[in-house]
Design brief:
- The complex is a heterodimer of chains A (323) and B (449).
- Chain A is 51% helix and 12% strand.
- With 323 residues, chain A is an alpha/beta fold.
- Chain B is α/β, with parallel strands linked by helices.
- Chain B folds into three domains: 84 residues, SRP54, nucleotide-binding domain (Four Helix Bundle (Hemerythrin (Met), subunit A)); 183 residues, P-loop containing nucleotide triphosphate hydrolases (Rossmann fold, 3-Layer(aba) Sandwich); 123 residues, 434 Repressor (Amino-terminal Domain), CATH 1.10.260.30.
- Chain B is elongated.
- The chains are: A alpha/beta (323), B alpha/beta (449).
- Chains A and B meet through helix 3, helix 7 and helix 10 of A and helix 2, helix 6 and helix 9 of B.
């Protein structure tokens, strides 16, 4: 079975997850429409047009995949097309998706959901300013509350005006406890207190919100490492997960962000937010390619239920093939 | 700073070209490829990059006259000019009405920094321009957005205005009334972040605009924005008629390529840049300075222009032919030194050369003094002495020293310099004989100190 038929097979058996597909489709619709229209416009019949690779380059770059990975994908695709004597556009597109799929999966098995191997499980949430960390935390909390987990939040963003209030507001709406400190107090101490309380109260999941920081601010990046260290004092294996929140509108700086945060505190997954806009979020492919960081969840809107598990098949097909 | 990475790239591209005397199709291709990569990596829009690279190519190939300066300088000038064109060639400042408060409305996607920037603008208005300012909270959607603006208002001593979760159009209207009735100088409206495809919320902005007719509608753009930034700007501009952009988060290492695209494709000028999280971190945007920063090469452009104006090409050619024929005399050396001197005072030139180690005023003066000394000494020689310096023995040196008012030590220095330059000539001859063009690698312009 070729890889693409394998993908198709997988899709056919996806019906039980119809709910996911629907929201995905709704959210990704605008993004994918632009992309697919472009590909389809390449040629009226099903032959591979002369400017196929040139247009492909434009499409991938405009989706923020980045010039390096784009060149990489195109070179590999050209090789496949030549070797397998592919003549039709649809087959070429299928080969393209397979190429991108292989590049993303790296023959690994990616589990999106947090596995609760230990109680409490600690999730540290990091990212630059304005990517939607706090909102994503509320959505994640909501997801695990629905799975009957006991969830607690820690407001370790003591810097941004209104940040503590924002998390508290979500806590009230979700009816869960939010551990806070004073404005401008040491975020590590808030995290420490929260870890302690989470242990005492048998919380399943403690989500620690941190202040947005640009990855170039050395002191603030050190502060992140410190937060992770301090939590370990109470819960030695914590943080079990560290999610990097990435804005789908982010360009090539996304790779630099991911690299820097990964160095400060080992990133176990990314959450791509604002995918309901017109940005294609192609940087997630580059981040996976360069740094092995998988996307775990995807934000498709502003309501609590707009957080979905990331599925590379859906993503690529939404972007490249299906209408 | 944000543009440093791009700057580094340009520098390394240009470095690669250094030492090559002429632009050829081959080194040009490589150069253009690198420029393209650098710009795409900086998130400049794909189409803008295409156009940019074409413009640079056409300009470079069309300008053979520039053969006299080295290609790296020429490319720098062309790239610089194109960048300035792209960024908009004039500064765009905010115009303040004199008889009533200025109304500024901030709009943009979620998380681009509207609320923080509202605070920065308020601080700028209050402290730099002494304008009494109101900050009005029109973001009724994001949890705690109102709290955030209230806290910021306190920090910058601006008046905070909120009607809770009232309709944002009403909030804007009431805030305007307050600003007019209480004789404020400025009103800043902080609106909720929204997607440009959210018609309902876009209509809300349109209604606010119709209600209060803002003097400035400024779009916040994150410096890390990718290729889609241009679509966002186009949509906001179409709906609202933007008066400008503010690029936020330029204190990171994001390269802000979107600023190039937006200015070029929408004609909306960038008016401010956000350069830090503190409330004083807001700067006016200057396109020419930004272009200089992208190139990171000091004022190379004026150097190129100076060189172009003042070096007499024909004379240079005669000079180098003479050097290569081997008949290099003290007169030739003096002549060459004068050519360099014509470029202006040495210190002026040094200042224009990027990457030049800082030279103290004392050192500069010394170098210029030395050139003057050389001239006086050579002028005190006979024609024969100048053409055949090897005949200069002790008695002649004493005579020249007396005539020029210098010591024989000074005269020996002139002769030593002459020997050095002659050596350069010899090496150049060998180099050319072996097929090299221009100066051998690592060799400086002869005659320069």
């Amino acid at each position: 079975m070729g890889l693409f038929s394998f993908l198709k097979e997988k899709f056919l058996h996806k019906e039980k997850k119809a709910d996911t597909i629907l929201t995905y489709d709704k959210g990704l619709n605008k993004a994918k429409k632009a992309f697919t229209d472009k590909i389809n416009k390449l040629t009226p019949d099903d032959s591979i047009p002369n400017n196929y690779f040139e247009r492909l380059e434009e499409i991938l770059i405009e989706a923020d995949v980045g010039i390096n990975l784009t060149t990489n994908i195109i070179n590999n695709l050209a090789k496949t097309i030549k070797e397998e004597k592919i003549r039709s556009l649809s087959a070429a597109n299928e080969a393209l998706v397979s190429e991108m799929f292989k590049d993303y999966m790296k023959e690994e098995n990616i589990v999106n959901d947090i596995s609760f191997n230990e109680t409490p499980t600690v999730l540290l949430v990091v990212g630059v300013n304005g990517v939607g960390k706090t909102t994503s935390i509320a959505k994640l909390a909501n997801r695990y509350l629905k799975m009957n987990k006991k969830v607690m939040l820690a407001a370790a963003d003591t810097f941004r005006a209104g940040a503590i209030e924002q998390l508290k507001a979500w806590g009230e709406r979700l009816k869960i406890e939010v551990i806070t400190g004073a404005v401008n107090s040491d975020p590590a101490s808030v995290a420490y207190v929260a870890a302690k309380k989470a242990k005492e109260q048998n919380v399943d999941l403690l989500i620690v919100d941190t202040a947005g920081r640009l990855q170039t601010k050395v002191n603030l990046m050190n502060e992140l490492s410190k937060i992770a260290r301090v939590i370990k004092k109470e819960i030695p294996n914590a943080p079990h997960e560290t999610f990097l929140i990435l804005d789908a509108t982010t360009g090539q700086n996304g790779v630099i962000q991911a690299k820097a945060f990964n160095e400060a505190t080992k990133i176990t997954g990314a959450v791509i937010t604002k995918m309901d806009g017109t940005s294609k979020g192609g940087i997630l492919l580059a981040i996976r390619h360069d740094l092995n960081i998988p996307v775990r969840f995807i934000g498709l809107g502003e309501t609590l239920d707009d957080l979905k598990e990331f599925d590379i098949n859906l993503y690529l097909h939404g972007l490249c093939v299906e209408e | 700073m944000a543009f440093e990475a791009l700057t580094d790239k340009f520098s390394s591209i240009i470095k690669r070209l250094k030492g090559e005397t002429y632009l050829t199709e081959k080194n040009m291709e490589e150069m253009l490829k690198s420029i393209r990569l650098a710009l795409l990596d900086a998130d400049v829009n794909y189409k803008v990059v295409k156009e940019f690279v074409n413009n640079v190519k056409n300009k470079a190939l069309g300008q053979e006259v520039y053969k006299k300066v080295n290609p790296s300088q020429m490319i720098t000038k062309i790239v610089h000019d194109e960048l300035v064109t792209l960024l908009g060639s004039t500064d765009s400042e905010i115009k303040y009405p004199t008889t009533r408060p200025i109304i500024v409305m901030l709009v943009g996607l979620q998380g681009t920094g509207k609320t923080t920037t509202a605070g920065k603008l308020a601080k700028y208005f209050q402290e730099k321009l002494h304008k009494k300012t109101i900050l009005a909270a029109c973001d009724i959607y994001r949890p705690a957005a109102i709290d955030q603006l209230e806290q910021i208002s306190k920090q910058v001593n601006a008046t905070f205005f909120s009607l809770g979760k009232e309709n944002p159009v009403t909030i804007a209207k009431k805030a305007k009334e307050l600003a007019f009735n209480e004789h404020y100088d400025a009103l800043i409206l902080d609106t909720a972040g929204r997607l440009q495809i959210d018609e309902q919320l876009m209509d809300e902005l349109k209604n606010i605009k119709a209600e209060v007719s803002p003097d400035e509608i400024l779009l916040l753009v994150d410096a890390a924005s990718g290729q889609d930034a241009i679509n966002v700007a186009l949509a906001f501009n179409e709906k609202l008629g933007l008066s400008g952009c503010i690029m936020s988060k330029l204190d990171g290492d994001a390269r802000g390529g979107a600023s190039l695209s937006i200015r070029h494709l929408t004609n909306v000028p960038i008016k401010f840049i956000g350069i830090g999280e503190k409330l004083i971190d807001l700067d006016a945007f200057h396109p020419d300075r930004m272009a200089d920063r992208i190139l990171g090469m000091g004022d190379v452009v004026s150097l190129v222009e100076k060189v172009k104006d003042q070096i007499d090409e024909k004379e240079m050619e005669k000079e180098s032919k003479k050097m290569l024929s081997g008949s290099f005399t003290l007169d030739d050396m003096l002549h060459q030194m004068k050519q360099v001197k014509r470029l202006g005072s040495l210190s002026g030139i040094l200042k224009l050369i990027p990457g030049m180690p800082k030279i103290t005023d004392e050192q500069k003066e010394k170098a210029e003094q030395e050139m003057k000394n050389f001239e006086v000494i050579i002028n005190s020689m006979t024609k024969e002495e100048r053409e055949h310096p090897e005949i200069l023995k002790n008695s002649r040196k004493i005579r020249i020293a007396k005539g020029s008012g210098k010591t024989s030590y000074d005269i020996n220095r002139v002769l030593k310099k002459y020997e050095q330059m002659k050596e350069v000539t010899k090496r150049m001859k060998d180099y050319r004989k072996n097929g090299g063009r221009g100066l051998p690698p690592g060799m400086n312009f002869p005659g320069a100190f």
